[in-house]
């Protein structure tokens, strides 16, 4: 009795290889999206922990917000920065660095592309992925009535506290932004580009420097969420940065849906 082993034909081998190639082509983008989603979730978790540390500070300081101290371009007041002030309120310094952070301005040895000083300095580096909304600063608020304490904020849940700092440029080494510079008179559509020099508004996704850019934002009620830039800032009259208009902005957004 004889046996016969059937070999694959060339056509069959080509078909198998083609099927494998198609499956790999499908799997690789899916794996990439899953990894990105994991980084987004990790960033949201970090922001929540930073927000909770700030809320613990606020509770201890009778409602007063923490201050900022890191300027743009590497100038700093280490005694004033929230990065140092909040240190007793968080357990792990790794929460200061977002998994989405692609900045090369971290200190040498912090990553494969780290070690580039904050321009125009030669020896200053990034201290956190996150910065504060300057409307909540007693010294840097553009408002005539600075909302430097919780009692001055009408709707904490609607008001941004922490945000994602730009990965490059002078603001990469700061610990706050200047929202008042996000609008040029007569050119309202320039706001995304202006803001992107200070905030990584497309860190989560979407086109760069666009109303549709998406990033993670931390709010004064302790939560963090992913939002399109247009949901956070449209103009001085409609945004979630200025506590005086943030509550009205949430209502207007809800009515326009």
What would your notes on this structure say?
By secondary structure, this protein is α+β, with helices and mostly antiparallel strands. It has one domain (12-256). It contains five helices and six strands, in the order H-H-E-E-H-E-E-H-E-E-H. The strands form two sheets. A four-stranded antiparallel sheet has the order 1-2-3-4. Strand 3 (214-219) and strand 4 (224-228) form a beta hairpin. It is globular.
Annotate the secondary structure layout.
Elements: H1 10-60, H2 82-85, E1 130-132, E2 160-164, H3 191-196, E3 214-219, E4 224-228, H4 229-232, E5 233-235, E6 238-239, H5 243-256
Antiparallel strand pairs: 1-2, 2-3, 3-4, 5-6
Summarize the structure.
The chain is an alpha+beta fold and 257 residues long. It is built from five helices and six strands.
Largest sheet: 4 strands, antiparallel
Strand fraction band? 5-15%
Distance between the termini: 78 Å
Provide the residue-averaged pLDDT: 91
Features:
257 residues, 6 strands, 31% helix, 4-stranded antiparallel beta sheet, alpha+beta, globular, two-stranded antiparallel ribbon
């Amino acid at each position: 009795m004889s046996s016969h082993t059937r070999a694959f034909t060339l056509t069959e081998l080509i078909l198998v290889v083609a099927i494998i190639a198609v499956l790999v082509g499908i799997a690789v983008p899916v794996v990439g999206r899953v990894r990105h989603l994991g980084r987004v979730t990790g960033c949201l978790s970090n922001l929540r922990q930073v927000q909770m540390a700030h809320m613990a500070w606020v509770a201890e300081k009778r409602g007063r917000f923490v201050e900022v101290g890191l300027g743009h371009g590497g100038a700093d007041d280490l005694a004033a920065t929230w990065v140092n002030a909040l240190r007793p309120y968080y357990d792990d310094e790794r929460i200061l660095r977002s998994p989405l952070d692609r900045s090369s301005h971290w200190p040498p040895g912090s990553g494969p592309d780290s070690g580039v000083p904050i321009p125009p300095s030669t020896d200053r580096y990034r201290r956190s992925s996150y910065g504060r909304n300057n409307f909540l600063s007693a010294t840097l608020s553009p408002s005539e009535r600075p909302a430097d304490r919780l009692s001055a904020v009408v709707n904490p849940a609607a008001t941004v506290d922490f945000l994602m700092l730009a990965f490059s440029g002078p603001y990469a080494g700061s610990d706050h932004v200047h929202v008042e510079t996000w609008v040029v008179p007569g050119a309202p559509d320039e706001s995304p580009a202006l803001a992107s020099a200070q905030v990584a508004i497309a860190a989560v996704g979407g086109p760069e420097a666009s109303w549709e850019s998406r990033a993670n934002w931390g709010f004064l009620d302790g939560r963090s969420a992913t939002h399109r830039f247009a949901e956070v800032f449209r103009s001085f009259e409609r945004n979630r940065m200025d506590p005086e208009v943030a509550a009205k902005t949430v209502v207007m957004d809800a009515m326009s849906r």
